[in-house]
């Protein structure tokens, strides 16, 4: 019987030993606030506390673990529950910034009176916020504009009736963030009334309009688009141009009482902005309106890649071409255009303004050796690039010349105007050469006959 109980006793000692080590490690990493209970993923504070500061884990020395482990400790906190904290009156921008993985936040039955504008800017995963039973008098929608809230609890919060909370009324009407399931109230100065019955004039969402629905330009152009935001209160209006490559300037004009206009001018438009979405945003106390314009940039084609043949499932000359509108591709071998067949064909995919693909060869021989030229063209220009393709050695050593000699990769790009100019020069030179040949022919014909007669005369006198 004794031998039967020994293994479990040893096992329990091991478990207790490991738990003690793990507990020591956690205690070295963080200290939980005195009125809270903490786990690796949650801070739960439901005891009365008159502290003025948001609960923060007190960090201890982590030895060689470094800052990364400290960041992970805060990031792993997904839920914070604070209840009965009468000293916490303002939620500051810095209070929440360390808890980047936070998903649920509850601050209820306390004395919270205000939340700073960027309090949740570092908490993109927040889905649930409970601010019930706090003396909040106002709340801005902009606190939550970058969050995907599933639920916002505001029970027993009595706001001051006014334009500042009109957005809550609209969210409640639309059923957003679970507000339609809550009984919300505001104080109109005389009594507490249901929020749904609040009637505020000159307080609504802004309207927005733009001068273009779609914008098509040629690379290097200059263009101006205008966005008008109107409403009461007067909205703030701006274009968002993050990661735009083209040079851009903004000019703002206000037409009182309720129109705010902003002009966006693009200078030397870049091909890298093709398919860019220009977005205009109008915001006021009630909410936001936005609209977008797709920027289409036309530019001549360029051949970004043309590789030597590579053996795959079939033999491939890989290429990448960029241009808008989509370029037309033609292939030439020994200056003759290649027609698609079962043995040579082009396969390619399109992604935005890129063409990527292969000129595929099925069982190529030495007859396919030679220079291959890719021509890409659209209405803005033509470009060519040449690569030498060697597939098999010729069985006849002297037959090498029939297939051309290896030529380094050559790229030629020209526009239609340049072609016309070149043709004009060629025609002029050809005409000049013809005139010169005619003059030389006349002169030779005229003076050549005189010399012939003189020679005959001398010969006749000698014989005489």
UniProtKB/TrEMBL annotation:
Q: Please, which domain of life does this record's source organism belong to? A: Eukaryota
Instruction: Cite the Ig-like domain residue spans from the record.
Output: 206-296
Enumerate the transmembrane spans.
421-444
* Secretion signal, residue range per the UniProt entry: 1-27
Sorted alphabetically, the keyword list is: Disulfide bond, Glycoprotein, Membrane, Signal, Transmembrane, Transmembrane helix
The coiled-coil segments of this chain are none
User: What Gene Ontology molecular-function terms does this entry list?
Assistant: ATP binding; transmembrane receptor protein tyrosine kinase activity
- UniProt record, GO biological process: cell surface receptor protein tyrosine kinase signaling pathway
- A Gene Ontology term for the protein's cellular component: plasma membrane
A Pfam family per the record? LRRCT_2
- This protein is called Ig-like domain-containing protein
Q: What is the lineage of its organism?
A: Eukaryota, Metazoa, Chordata, Craniata, Vertebrata
């Amino acid at each position: 019987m004794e031998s039967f109980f020994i293994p479990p006793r040893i096992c329990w000692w091991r478990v207790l030993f490991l738990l003690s080590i793990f507990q020591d490690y956690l205690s070295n990493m963080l200290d939980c606030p005195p009125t809270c209970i903490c786990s690796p993923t949650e801070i739960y504070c439901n005891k009365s506390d008159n502290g003025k500061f948001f609960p923060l884990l007190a960090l201890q020395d982590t030895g060689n673990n470094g800052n990364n482990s400290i960041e992970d400790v805060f990031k792993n906190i997904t839920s914070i529950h604070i209840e009965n904290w009468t000293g916490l009156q303002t939620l500051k921008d810095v209070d929440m910034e360390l808890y980047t993985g936070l998903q649920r936040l509850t601050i209820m039955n306390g004395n919270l009176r205000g939340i700073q504008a960027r309090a949740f800017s570092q908490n993109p995963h927040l889905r649930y916020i409970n601010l019930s039973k706090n003396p909040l008098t106002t709340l801005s929608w902009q606190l939550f504009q970058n969050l995907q809230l599933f639920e916002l609890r505001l029970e027993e919060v009595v706001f001051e009736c006014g334009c500042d909370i009109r957005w809550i009324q609209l969210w409640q009407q639309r059923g957003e963030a679970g507000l339609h399931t809550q009984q919300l109230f505001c104080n109109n100065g005389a009594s507490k009334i249901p929020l749904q019955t609040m009637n505020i004039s000159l307080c609504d969402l802004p309207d927005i309009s733009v001068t273009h629905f779609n914008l098509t330009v040629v690379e290097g152009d200059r263009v101006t688009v205008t966005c008008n935001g109107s409403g009461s209160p007067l909205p703030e209006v701006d274009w968002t141009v993050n990661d735009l490559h083209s040079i851009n300037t903004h000019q703002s004009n206000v037409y009182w009482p309720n129109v705010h206009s902003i002009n966006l001018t693009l200078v030397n438009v870049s091909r890298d902005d093709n398919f860019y979405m220009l977005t205009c945003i109008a915001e006021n106390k009630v909410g936001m309106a936005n609209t977008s314009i797709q920027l289409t940039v036309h530019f001549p084609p360029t051949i970004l890649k043309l590789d030597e043949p590579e053996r795959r499932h079939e033999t491939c000359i890989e290429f990448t071409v960029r241009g808008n509108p989509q370029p037309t591709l033609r292939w030439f071998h020994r200056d003759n255009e290649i027609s698609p067949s079962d043995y040579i064909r082009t396969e390619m995919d399109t992604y935005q303004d890129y063409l990527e693909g292969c000129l595929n060869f099925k069982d190529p021989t030495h007859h396919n050796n030679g220079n291959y030229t890719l021509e890409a063209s659209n209405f803005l220009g033509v470009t060519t690039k040449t690569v030498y393709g060697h597939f098999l050695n010729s069985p006849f050593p002297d037959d090498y010349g029939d297939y051309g000699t290896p030529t380094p990769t050559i790229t030629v790009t020209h526009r239609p105007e340049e072609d016309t100019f070149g043709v004009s020069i060629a025609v002029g030179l050809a005409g000049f050469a013809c005139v010169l040949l005619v003059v030389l022919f006349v002169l030779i014909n005229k003076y050549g006959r005189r010399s012939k007669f003189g020679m005959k005369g001398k010969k006749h006198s000698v014989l005489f």
